[in-house]
Amino acid sequence: MTKMIKLHQRVTKLLMPLAVVAGLAACTTTTTGDLGERNPNAARDAYIQLGEEYLKVDDRESAKQRFFRAIEIDDDAAGAYTGLAVVYLRSSEYDEAEEYFKKALRADSGYTPAKVQYGVFLLGQSRYREACSQLERATADREWTQRHVALFYYGRCEFKRENYVEAERALLLANRINVRFAASYLELTQVYLAKNELPLAKSTLSEYFRFGAETAEALLVAIKVERAFGNITAERTFAQQLQLRYPYSDEWLAYREMSNQ
After folding, report:
1. Residue 162: C-alpha distances to residues 15, 61, 88, 194, 244 (Å)
2. How many Cα atoms within 13 Å fall on the side-chain side of residue 39?
3. Which tens digit of pLDDT belongs to each residue from 15-26?
4. Which segments carry the TPR repeats (predicted)?
């Protein structure tokens, strides 16, 4: 209930400036359809934003309706196609998700959010060459406010391809852009482990714990770092935390396999 109240408040805020733009603030009976006739670009953007708000509370059907409405107004609405791709992705309809990612990029080949989302989708499918290509293009957009996120995923992708030099470059740049972006430090720690640069791995992990939570992934990486140094006491401490807090996680199973080797 609280989520829906907050959603209603966000929707109201989205509609208010559109009423002002269209000169409709005093007319309470005007619909968004009327706004579409007066200011189609504003109406398109409103529907996309509404769809994104519904996605935040995982109301996929309402989100889908808004994204399709935006496309009715503008069939080159890359943001709407991207939103639909996310809707289908959350429903595990992967073919449909990919179709809409491609539609988004056909509508606007320079739409960075679609490149990132599509790249992450491909990364999740272990299609690393395609994923890295999309993500690398996304990192070139220096005006995008979330560029560090694109660099993080690009770095992760290159790490999966064992291209450690390029992964390190991308992740270091992500951290320079946003020094508090913890995920990049954790990924960079794994790059340094793979390169056997243990002091850098340890110091970078410390940076991660300044900003990031003790997730199962972070605890497993910490275990690997301490094991690489031969620090049995610290390794056991992290292992105990992993078992206590995440006993049914993939990371705990991975640690047990490590211990049996």
Report:
1. 47, 40, 31, 9, 32
2. 18
3. 433 333 333 222
4. 44-77, 78-111
CATH T-level topology, domain 1-108: 1.25.40
* Span 112-141, pLDDT tens digits: 999 999 999 999 999 999 999 999 999 999
* Cβ count near 192 (within 10 Å): 22
- Does the pTM surpass 0.90? The reply is no
CA torsion, ordered 95, 101, 105, 106, to nearest 10 deg: 40
Residue with tokens 């070139």: 140
How does 224-241 read in b/e, with b if 16+ C-beta sit within 10 Å? bbbbeeeeeeebeebbeb
CA angle 89, 93, 98 (to 5 degrees): 65
For the record, the structure tokens of 161 come out as 């391809």
Evaluated on CA atoms 178, 184, 186, 190, the torsion sign reads negative
Within the chain, strands assigned E span none
Which regions of the chain carry the CATH code 1.25.40.10?
Answer: 1-108
Any residues with CB less than 8 A from the CB of 75 and at least 6 apart, and which? Answer: 107
DSSP state of 215: -
Decide: helix, strand or coil at residue 188: helix
Angle, alpha carbons 177-143-153 (nearest 5°): 55
d(CA 193, CA 220): 12
